[in-house]
Structures are given as structure tokens and as C-alpha cells.
């Protein structure tokens, strides 16, 4: 291309679909220093803060979640129509040369607008099951970058598929990207094994409500473990109270900015099996208990958990199976008590890591733009 390209990375709705975009953006700017990169999300304050905090532009593309009742349907249609119009305007006014979809609320309207405008787009699918918008747009994409080879069979046969692996946030690439088989020593260590509970920025209600009771049930098996629980916005006080009532000493926080640094001093994780989360656990070589979100109707969490469990041995705890606290305690007990079991899972997690994933996505972008640049994979020093 004669001029410096302007690339729009569309995601949003949760930071899990923003973080991979930041890693890809960084790789793009290493290759194309004069390029402009904009991240599009659904306008949440934490998204704007995160994106602008690393020096990138942020744009808002409105979109609504799928309606849960007939009364929600008109608002859903209106807001998504508005999102398509905003995306169309954004592509034209900002002279966007290429769109990268990383999943999330802003991705669907933006890809549809790019398709009707004749602007090339690349799809990054982090999940083992492709999102419906990914399936619908795959055959016309410049490239479809997949985290898992199993996903290809669920896409149209003429889709331009590339297996890049899953992309984590920049901090995990920096801290664990030198050698996925070698965990760096922790920056700090309390001398106690650490259990990290990731409830997400928006909060995982069932985990916040059930983990304190699960730790109480574990009794001696959990003795000596330090618990760090990310409860999400609005859940800090309530979750602290539940741990206090259970007699469990836990550090509860709303959000963890430097999660990669904490991961270096963590021994076990309880989390949702989102695609980006699993990518980061693999980079860090961390064993985990996976708890799919039963509120999701698309089956993505369940599919991700099954694939991760098959490859690495991570146990799965299903929310609908009776008392979640009892199920969590049963899933955690052997991992808390047996270091060898944790290490076996950790080794298989490290083997599944793809620290070059964001670089491979950036290669696909450079090729689609016909931008002459040598492939570059940055590593932490």
C-alpha cells in the first residue's frame, strides 16, 4: 500500500475480547510504525480506559445483547441497526483499510458494514465453536485466524483458514513468551500456595456466591492456601462478607490490572473457560478448574472446557449440577492436595501455548494489505 494503513480492531462487551486486540495491535505497529490502529468496542468506561491507557484510539459501536424476552426485541433491533449505521460511518469517515474482528459486541455490526462497503476483514476466532457471526462472514473474509484446528470443520468449506493459536493479552506474551516451557520465577512470593479465582470484570455471580462456601467445605485440604478472588464491579463488599462469614481468609478485589505478574506467583486457578482466558492460562502454564457459565446459550464455554479438559486434564465443574459449592469443593480437593497432579496439568497447558499467535495474525494482516514487511515475533528480553 502507498499510504500508511488505518486498521480497525472490533471487539468489546468484555475485556476478554479487547485484550487480544491489544496484542495484535502491538504486533502491527512493530511491523508498520506509521500505521494507525483503532479499537472499537461498545463504549464501556473500562474498555475506553484500557485502550487509551496503551496509547490507542477507541471508537464506540453500539450494540445490544440478545433479547431474553419479547419485550426486549424492539430495543435489540433498533440498537443493532444503530450499530451498523455507526460502523458504516466510522469505516467511511476514518478511511479504514482493513477490519479485524476479535469477537464481542462491536465485531458483528462492524464486519457486516465492512462486507457491504467492500473493505477487507480478518476474523480471529478464539473459541473452539465459532460464533454465529464468524460462520456467517467466514467465506468472504481475507483470512480466518483460528485458535483451534477443530474449529475449521464448523466453518464454510471455502473459508480462508489459518491456524494461528489463541491470543492472550500483551502482559502474558511479555512474561511468558520467551519460552512457553519455562516459567519465570515469581516477582513476589508469600511462601504459601496461591489459589486465584477469576470472576471477570463484570463479575461471575455464581463463583462469587459459591467459592466462599466451597473453601469452607474443603477444610484441612485448603489449609495453608492463600485465596485471591477477583469479584468484578459491584461485588467486592458482598464477596468479602461471604468469605468472612465462612471463616476463610481471602483477598477480594474488583479487578486485577497486572494479572500476568500475579500469575507468576499463582499455583491454581478457578475461572470461566473463555477463549482468551484459556490462552493466558496456557502461556502461564497454570492448572485450572473450569466453570462454564450456564447463562450462556451459545455453548461456547462448554465446548471450550471440553476441549481444554481433553488436552490438559483440567477438571470441569458444571453449574447446573446441584449445589455449586459442593461441586467446586469436589473439583478442587485433589488439585489442592496433590502437587504432582497440578504439575502434570501445568505441563500440558504449557505444551498447548502458542506465544507466536498475535504475530501470526499480524502476518495475515500485512499480507492482506500487501504491506511489505518481514514477519516479526517480539519476545520479552
How are the SSEs ordered, and which strands pair?
Blueprint: E1 6-10, H1 19-31, E2 36-41, H2 45-53, E3 57-60, H3 73-93, E4 98-101, H4 107-117, E5 121-125, H5 132-137, E6 143-146, E7 161-163, H6 170-176, E8 194-198, H7 205-218, E9 226-230, H8 236-246, E10 250-253, H9 259-263, E11 268-271, H10 275-284, E12 288-290, H11 300-312, H12 324-337, H13 339-351, H14 357-368
Describe the structure concisely for a colleague.
This protein has 14 helices and twelve strands. It is an alpha/beta fold and about 375 residues long.
Distance between the termini: 32 Å
Q: Would you identify the regions where 5 or more consecutive residues have pLDDT less than 50?
A: 374-381
SSE string, helices as H and strands as E = EHEHEHEHEHEEHEHEHEHEHEHHHH
Q: In order across it, which strands form the biggest sheet?
A: 3-2-1-4-5-6-7
Quaternary: single chain
The amount of beta strand, in percent, is 5-15%
CATH class of the largest domain: Alpha Beta
Shape: elongated
